[in-house]
Amino acid sequence: LQVPCAPSQPAASGESRRFANKHSKKALKASLTLGILLGMFFVAWLPFFVTNVTQAVCGCVPAGFFDVLTWLGYCNSTMNPIIYPLFMRDFKRAMGKYLPCCRHSGEPRPSAISLSMRNSNSGPHAATSLRNVL
User: Fold this and answer.
1) Is 119 among the domain residues?
2) 102 alpha carbon, distance to own chain's centre
3) 94 near 134, Cβ under 8 Å?
4) Contact, 14 vs 35, CB < 8 A?
5) Hey, which end of the chain has fewer CB within 10 Å, N or C?
6) What is this structure's pTM?
């Protein structure tokens, strides 16, 4: 006895495959961004922390070298505002929305009152979530 097979739904499986593929690309991009940020953090700050512990144990680290490693860590902090817009579209969009130097010519400028109302959770948009506000 053979049981009749239900016809397959190629449109639904193709759509779910596209959906999964889109989300896997987003996850890959997010993990790449996180990897770059963490990698830069460790490259910049790990030598400072190792030298700091070494200085506490033996006191044999020259002051100039310690200063150079401290400034290397500070340089990492200055790189974050450059890295985020390069890799994160949402961050870039938010920067363009609120900073005049990053706004496209056709976008309206938010008023101070609307920004104040959003931040205070008062007014007609009090029940909106943080995601909708940003």
Assistant:
1) no
2) 17
3) yes
4) no
5) N
6) 0.51
Token pair recorded at residue 108: 């309206």
- Domain containing 47 equals 16-96
**Total domain count for the chain?**
1
Tell me the two tokens of residue 92.
């870039």
Q: Assess if residue 11 is contained within a domain.
A: no
The token duo for 17 is 């495959």
Residue 117 covered by a domain: no
Asked if residue 134 is part of any domain, the answer here is: no
HEC sequence for 29-94: HHHHHHHHHHHHHHHHHHHHHHHHHHHHHHCCCCHHHHHHHHHHHHHHHHHHHHHHHHHCHHHHHH
